[in-house]
Amino acid sequence: xxxxxxxxxxxxxxxxxxxxxxxxxxxxxxxxxxxxxxxxxxxxxxxxxxxxxxxxxxxxxxxxxxxxxxxxxxxxxxxxxxxxxxxxxxxxxxxxxxxxxxxxxxxxxxxxxxxxxxxxxxxxxxxxxxxxxxxxxxxxxxxxxxxxxxxxxxxxxxxxxxxxxx
Length: 166
Hints:
- The protein is mainly alpha-helical.
- It contains six helices and no strands.
- It is about 75% helix and about 0% strand.
């Protein structure tokens, strides 16, 4: 083999390698760059709302409630209605105040995120307090039921949440 043939063979080999490498790069599955999503932006699954004494009383036929249980649940429901009314009124007032604030700012221009967060903090605190009190109330209502009734209530609640009953 003379020098010309040797150079031509080397050039052809390099060309084949270059073409193969280029084609391979086009087909290679490259991992996509994924940035971690901020927790505040991701949507959380809705939390199941625990049934109140009123919800349990409304499901009384399905749960085969005894008279003593119905009496206890009615008393608990009256207490819940009295206790939750005050905090619900405060929450409604805070929500209306925040809505007025946002309407004003929409009409006049922009506002800072910090100001919006500061103004909505009261709503968040009241919502948290109401949710915690409802949880305590729901646990007290569930404690009145037997194990079978609590299990049955869980089944009924799942059916209603999934759209099984209207």
